[in-house]
Design brief:
- This protein is α/β, with parallel strands linked by helices.
- The chain has 19 helices and 15 strands.
- The strands form four sheets. Strands 1-6-5-2-3-4 form a six-stranded mixed sheet, sandwiched between helices.
- It is globular.
- 38% of the residues are buried.
C-alpha cells in the first residue's frame, strides 16, 4: 500500500510495523491532523497481569499519546463475565466480580508505565465497560441494539466459524460477546467522543461491527485500525516462553526473567522487535537488526535493556543486565536471579535435585527434570548434575546454591 500519511501517528504505525489494516486510512489520517483523537483498546481482565502478547497494543497507545492524541484503556469488567470466544477451542472459565476487580487493579499498574493518566486533553482514561453493561435492560437492549445484527453475518465471522467447523460447542453467552464489544464502541463514542478502536487483526470483525452499529444508531463516523498478530521468526506465538507466559507485572515475573526473555530473541527478530517494543529511531533499529555473528548479541542486550526500562524502569534494566553479566561471564551468582527460599521443614532429611528444579520453576515436572539431567542440561553451581536422585540436605544449603537449566535459565535456592 502506497498511502503517504499526513499525521504523525499513522506515519509511526506504518514505518515501525504496527499496521495490519485500517477501515479508512484517509478519513482517520485527516481526523488526526484536525485535532486530538480519543482512541481505545479493550483488555479483558481474565488474569492479574497482561502478558507480553498485549505489549504491541500497549505500545500503540503509548505512541498515540506521544503524537498528541488521547488513549483510552477499556477494561472489560462487564465482558469478562462473558468471555471472548475468538480463536479459542473452548469456553473460558467464568470469574466472580471480586476476581475481575482484583485483576483490573493488577493490570492498571502496567499501563501506568506506558501512558500518563489524568484530566488533560491528551491524558489517558481508564474506563470499565461494566459502567454501561452492568445496568443493561435485556429487552431494551434486544430492541435497540440486537435488531442491527444479522445472525447470518455473525456466523460468517472467522472466530465463530472456526469453532462451528470443528463441531465445538459455542454457547449463546459467548455468541453475544461480539454484540457487547460493538456496543462498547458505540458507548465510548457517545460518552467520550472516542473515534478509533485498535486491536490485533483477529479483532477486525468485532471492530467493524462496532463501526457499523455506531453509524446505524448515532449516525457518527468512527474508525478501526489493527496490528498484525505477532509470531516469532520460528513461528511461535508471541508471549510464551519455555517456562510459561511472559507476564508484565513484576510480582508475577521478575524484571530479570523479563529481561532474559528479550535477550533470548532469535537473531532474525531483533530489528523488528526494536521497532515495535522500543522507542529507538527506526534507522537505528534497522542498523542493529542487520548486525551479524557475535555483534547481534550486543543488539539483543540493547533490545532487552530498552524494553525492560520502559516497563520496569532504567535501574531494573541495568540491574538485570549486570546480573546476566555476572552469571554468564563470571560464572558467579547475580543478585537479581529468581530465588526459591526453603525452610528446614521443607527439606526434612533431604530433597532430590530433580524436585529442586521443579520447585524453582526451571522445569514443570519430575519427568522433565530427569530428561534435563539425562541430556546433560542440568547444573548445580555450574557443575553438571548426573544423578536425578542426588539428595540436597540443609548442610548443602548453608550458602545459596545456583541451579541452571541449559545455558540461559538459572535460579538460586537458599535456606531461610
Amino acid at each position: 500500500m502506497t498511502y503517504h500519511p499526513k499525521s504523525d501517528f499513522i506515519a509511526v504505525m506504518m514505518e515501525r510495523g504496527y499496521l495490519a489494516d485500517c477501515t479508512d486510512y484517509q478519513g482517520l489520517d485527516e481526523a488526526m491532523v484536525k485535532g486530538t483523537v480519543p482512541a481505545y483498546i479493550g483488555f479483558d481482565a481474565t488474569a492479574k497481569s497482561l502478558h507480553v502478547g498485549s505489549l504491541i497494543q500497549i505500545m500503540m497507545l503509548r505512541w498515540l499519546q506521544k503524537t498528541g492524541h488521547k488513549p483510552i484503556t477499556l477494561m472489560g469488567g462487564g465482558t469478562t463475565k462473558v468471555g471472548d470466544p475468538s480463536f479459542r477451542a473452548d469456553e473460558r472459565p467464568l470469574l466472580t466480580p471480586d476476581q475481575i476487580d482484583s485483576n483490573i487493579a493488577g493490570i492498571k499498574q502496567v499501563f501506568a508505565s506506558y501512558v500518563t493518566y489524568g484530566d488533560g486533553p491528551t491524558d489517558a482514561l481508564m474506563i470499565n465497560n461494566a459502567e454501561w453493561l452492568d445496568g443493561l435492560n435485556y429487552l431494551d437492549f434486544l430492541r435497540d441494539i440486537g435488531r442491527h445484527f444479522s445472525v447470518n453475518r455473525m456466523l460468517a465471522f472467522e472466530s465463530v466459524k472456526s469453532r462451528l467447523d470443528r463441531e465445538q460447542s459455542l454457547s449463546f453467552l459467548e455468541f453475544n460477546y461480539m454484540i457487547l464489544q460493538a456496543y462498547d464502541f458505540l458507548e465510548l463514542n457517545r460518552r467520550y467522543g472516542c473515534l478509533l478502536q485498535m486491536g490485533g487483526s483477529d479483532q477486525w470483525g468485532n471492530i467493524v461491527n462496532g463501526i457499523d452499529l455506531t453509524r446505524r444508531v448515532l449516525d457518527n463516523q468512527i474508525f478501526g485500525l489493527t496490528s498484525p498478530l505477532l509470531t516469532t521468526s520460528d513461528g511461535k506465538k508471541m508471549g510464551k516462553s519455555q517456562s510459561g507466559a511472559v507476564w508484565l507485572n513484576a510480582d508475577m515475573l521478575s524484571p530479570y526473567e523479563f529481561w532474559q526473555f528479550w535477550r533470548n530473541s532469535t537473531d532474525a527478530d531483533v530489528g523488528r522487535f526494536l521497532k515495535l517494543y522500543t522507542e529507538l529511531p527506526v534507522d537505528e533499529c534497522d542498523r542493529i537488526g542487520a548486525l551479524q555473528g557475535s555483534e547481534i548479541n550486543e543488539g539483543k542486550i540493547i533490545l532487552a535493556n530498552e524494553v525492560t526500562a520502559l516497563l520496569h524502569g532504567r535501574a531494573a534494566a541495568e540491574a538485570a543486565a549486570q546480573t546476566a553479566k555476572d552469571v554468564f561471564e563470571k560464572g558467579g551468582v547475580g543478585d537479581d536471579l529468581p530465588t526459591l527460599t526453603l525452610t528446614s521443614d521443607d527439606i526434612g532429611d533431604g530433597i532430590s535435585i530433580g524436585q529442586l528444579f521443579v520447585r524453582a520453576g526451571l522445569v514443570k515436572t519430575g519427568k522433565e527434570a530427569k530428561r534435563l539431567i539425562a541430556e546433560n542440561g542440568a547444573k548445580l553451581d555450574d557443575e553438571p548434575v548426573t544423578t536425578p536422585g542426588l539428595m540436597i540436605d540443609t548442610g548443602a544449603l548453608s550458602s545459596p546454591i545456583k541451579l541452571s537449566a541449559g545455558k540461559k535459565r538459572h535460579a538460586l535456592v537458599e535456606l531461610k
